Design the sequence.
């Protein structure tokens, strides 16, 4: 992880996500790029002042421990962001969301879901209540990779998850799959599950978890409700359309207390 991009709109939610991004960058020795995309030209001077103040505050807080730069841009969010991505080549985008109502808004088409759906860069969604300190708490060291166990075409997509996991104190990875009761897991899916675990071992303690349920999202939610030590949930997006339909339903709204890493089974 060399570069992390943090789009902000100066709201408390986006600034909380920025603090999370800054802590990640410090520990990963990555470059933090802060961007504010403006819709109106008259907001430019105000944005300049705010960005200058934010960067100054981060530099003072982290001193030489953080490589940070900031700028603003004009235009449509997705169009402008794609241009920024082409230039900056980030390994990760970090964005914020409000509580349950915020994720419900995400499902219906907010800025965050537009970014997830229209780019191939991994997106780490930070709920308003999440704090980076939780990653430093042994009681929040479980990382749940919720997967359908379909074969990955680009297994390097999981590199970012492993990098983030290794920043956690004594991380524990759980490869979680959901299927109906009284069904057998096909051999190809068993092989894929074993392969996923092999990516993270031996550096990270990794285990397979199966939840039996007729509804995938309900099964994931059931597991998360039982495991309070979860600090991060990760999912793999197969394609933009399927991602929204299959994974980001209203049922996931109750779990915005977890940072959510969305990776893409695609080359960036």
Sequence:
């Amino acid at each position: 992880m060399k570069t992390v991009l943090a789009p902000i709109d100066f709201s408390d939610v986006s600034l909380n996500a920025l603090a999370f991004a800054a802590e990640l960058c410090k520990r990963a020795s990555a470059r933090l790029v802060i961007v504010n995309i403006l819709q109106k030209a008259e907001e430019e001077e105000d944005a300049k002042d705010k960005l200058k103040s934010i960067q100054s505050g981060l530099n003072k807080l982290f001193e030489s421990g953080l490589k940070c730069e900031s700028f603003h841009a004009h235009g449509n969010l997705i169009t402008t962001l794609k241009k920024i991505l082409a230039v900056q080549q980030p390994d990760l985008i970090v964005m914020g969301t409000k509580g349950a109502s915020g994720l419900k808004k995400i499902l219906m088409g907010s800025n965050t879901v537009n970014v997830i759906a229209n780019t191939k860069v991994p997106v780490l969604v930070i709920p308003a209540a999440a704090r980076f300190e939780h990653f430093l708490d042994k009681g929040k060291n479980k990382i749940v990779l919720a997967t359908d166990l379909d074969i990955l075409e680009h297994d390097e997509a999981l590199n970012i998850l492993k990098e983030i996991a290794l920043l956690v104190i004594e991380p524990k990875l759980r490869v979680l799959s959901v299927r109906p009761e009284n069904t057998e897991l096909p051999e190809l899916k068993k092989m894929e599950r074993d392969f996923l675990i092999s990516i993270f071992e031996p550096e990270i303690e990794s285990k397979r978890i199966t939840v039996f349920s007729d509804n995938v999202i309900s099964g994931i939610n059931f597991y998360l409700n039982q495991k309070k030590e979860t600090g991060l949930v990760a999912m793999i997006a197969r394609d933009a359309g399927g991602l929204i339909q299959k994974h980001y339903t209203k049922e996931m709204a109750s779990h915005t207390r977890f940072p959510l890493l969305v990776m893409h089974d695609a080359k960036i």
Notes: Strands lie at 3-7, 31-38, 67-74, 92-97, 123-127, 142-146, 172-179, 205-212, 230-237, 260-264. DSSP finds nine helices and ten strands in the chain. The chain has two domains: 3-127, 132-264. Confidence is low (pLDDT under 50) at residues 100-109, 240-251.
